[in-house]
Specification:
Blueprint lengths: L10 H8 L6 H4 L15 H4 L9 H37 L4 H32 L9 H9 L3 H23 L9 H30 L3 H37 L5 H24 L2 H8 L5 H10 L3
Length: 309
């Protein structure tokens, strides 16, 4: 499990570390380097498709790849909400803290690059998967719902996503030689994590900066808003499971029995909740940030987490 990780969290140190990472979308996916549909995309620790007894190994592989596509799609959707938050924060800072402005401008540029990257992989998936598939949306409506909440609530959701990304890579992908995963997909996860690791440090400072100007009531509202977004995402994840099963039936040309369908729905709902919700809500660095906001805030989040356990 992830341990509390400490960093030199100053804008100057983050800017210095960010210069060590420099990749382009075309370096990761192009006409010569695309997806291998003979291999799983997501590690079992994130997809949980290998233990579904009602599916053959070939069907488990297809569901894993469907999960890989929805994984990237959901990240793309969430990053569409992060980008306006970061731009608004840059405007609030102005030129008073010029290193902070410079660092967050880098985040905005990289989040845009990530959205571009995820869309290129979605194109490669559509070209190679060989069957129609669906994802929840539209993405603009999801981003709009998230952004209607307080800035602190959205910033906490953003911090959740950044630390969740780190946990996914370090605990399930890095040094994973057991599962023979698609190398292109692993490369994407690695390069995405490299930049999100810097973003998590900056977003920690963003939450601290916002909280300095808020009273206890406004901070409580921010935490309530974060929980509201979590519950909204949970409803979306449940819908995504249904779409995944529909996509699986189409690509395998098999109609699952009602019993098998309900069992997969239940198992995959837990999988999505653990991967996208619990992994962020319980990350030690996220917990630490929430606890610095006040004595009771994390108790509400912990109570919500138990509903997904």
């Amino acid at each position: 499990m992830a341990a509390l990780i400490t960093y030199d969290n100053t804008y100057s140190s983050i800017l210095k570390d960010a210069t060590k990472i420099n990749w382009r979308v075309q370096d990761l996916i192009n006409d010569k380097n695309s997806l291998d549909f003979f291999k799983p995309f997501l590690p079992e620790g994130l997809a949980h498709t290998g233990a579904i007894a009602s599916l053959s190994s070939a069907e488990q592989l297809k569901l894993n790849q469907i999960r890989g596509n929805s994984y990237l799609y959901l990240f793309s959707v969430l990053e569409e909400a992060i980008l306006p938050l970061v731009v608004n924060h840059i405007q609030a800072i102005g030129s008073d803290e010029i290193e902070a402005t410079q660092a967050f401008l880098g985040v905005a540029s990289e989040e845009s690059k990530h959205i571009h990257l995820f869309r290129r992989f979605a194109e490669a998936f559509e070209a190679g998967f060989g069957s129609p598939y669906d994802c929840i949306g539209p993405s603009s409506a999801i981003a709009r719902f998230i952004l209607q909440h307080s800035s602190l609530g959205v910033a906490l959701m953003t911090l959740h996503i950044e630390w969740m990304t780190q946990r996914h890579f370090l605990e399930s992908v890095r040094e994973n030689q057991r599962e023979n995963l698609d190398p292109q997909f692993c490369s994407l996860l690695k390069h995405h994590w490299q930049e999100e690791a810097q973003h998590a440090r900056l977003d920690t400072l963003m939450v601290q900066s916002m909280a300095r100007d808020l009273d206890a009531a406004a901070i409580a509202t921010g935490i309530d808003d974060y929980i509201a977004v979590i519950q909204y995402l949970n409803a979306g994840l449940i819908n995504q499971v249904q779409l995944d099963i529909d996509s699986l039936e189409r690509v395998t040309e098999r109609s699952l029995s009602l019993t098998d369908r309900e069992a997969i729905q239940q198992q995959q709902t837990v999988s999505y909740q653990q991967t996208f919700l619990v992994a962020g809500m319980t990350h030690p660095n996220f917990v630490e940030s929430v606890r610095t906001l006040g004595p009771d805030g994390y108790d509400l989040i912990a109570e919500t987490t138990q509903a997904f356990s």
